[in-house]
Amino acid sequence: MIFVQPSVPHQPGGRVRRVANAFALAFVSLITVASMAGSAIRPGDRVAIIGNTLADQLRVHGYFETFLLQLPAEPRVSVRNLGWAGDMLSARDRPTNFPTEESVLIAHQTDVIIACFGLGESFAGTAGLPAFRTALKAFVDSHRGRKYNGKTEVRLILVSPIAYENLGTLTPEHERRNRELADYTAAMEQVASGQELPFVNLFQPTREIMADASAPKLTTNGIHLNAYGYWAVGRMLTAGVATIPPPWALRIDASALRATGDGVTIVQVEPAAGGVRFSVQEQRPPTLAPPLTGPIHAALQPLRDTLAVANLAPGEYLLTIDGQPVFTATDDRWAAGIAVDTSPRHREAETFRQAVNDKNQQFVYGWKALNQVHIVGERKSSPSGQALPTEVIAFKRLADEKDEALRRRPDPLALTHTWQLTPATRPSSRP
User: 4-241 — its CATH code?
Assistant: First the structure.
């Protein structure tokens, strides 16, 4: 969970939601979890994401949408991603006769729009700020009063760009670029405040964690996030629009046979084969694991599900869940606490994320077909062009069916799983 600064009043009034300094993550256990009903995203919302490459690639990696679908609220949200690489507020090029954004928003019965802009515009520097503010206000005004769901006015959430990551010679003038991005982020927040809109500041927390030069990189080129970056930013964005329950935290005393758990209920703690065995019933879904091995940013470590086992006899211990091996570690590492997001249940969560990505791919095939010239261009009368419209309809139907299946997929939280630590017979390994 990432700390989200509560909504605060502004003059002339309004609310702005911010993601706070990333290093506040160390204090996530102190955060009080509120209900999703008080969040910018509400249960059952039909969400549309629009904007630049940051928005577009959210659908490719699926972390943000999966985090939303894991929230403990019913009914689940439904998401359609209309992001387009390179989009800016005043430059959103589309093929001739391409479906209008309005038509897609209406077809989705959109309740809320998450809008990601500011990166492309920031290359205009300080001189471009007035035009950016004007364009952003015009964008907000263009959606004011619109009822894409046929009932209520659409709600807008503005999202800032991320920071510019220092990759050495690949990213010249990164300090100047970050000053410009900070200015554009501030401009977005000012517009959000004046328009009484939620605002998610991704710039500040990404800049903070990017400052750790020894940690894995978040981007491929300073600007575009890699898979790990989308895992981290997906979590930040989710925290900016909804209240995320904290991850699992399992704490076992192997000597006293006592246990406490956050996100899980732990019972039947007992000695077993030189180690300890206990039963775990999940209260919340497991947290998606980061898509890499080895250490991650220290500030992001509290986002992972962890197990800490104190007072084990010296040695190495193998963790199994329902008899399936997970990994081994020494007693001192177990005492300090270890991320356990490679378990069988976490692998199930990863399979769910892949299903989210598949749904998004079917939607893209129908909305942004790979060969638009056969549909809206000069080849639309060719045999392949004549076939494609029917195929597009089929892709859209597939996307709707897969979306509904994701929203109705039950979480097997009532099941009880057996966790066990026993002396290891192989070298220590770390997931």
Answer: 3.40.50.1110
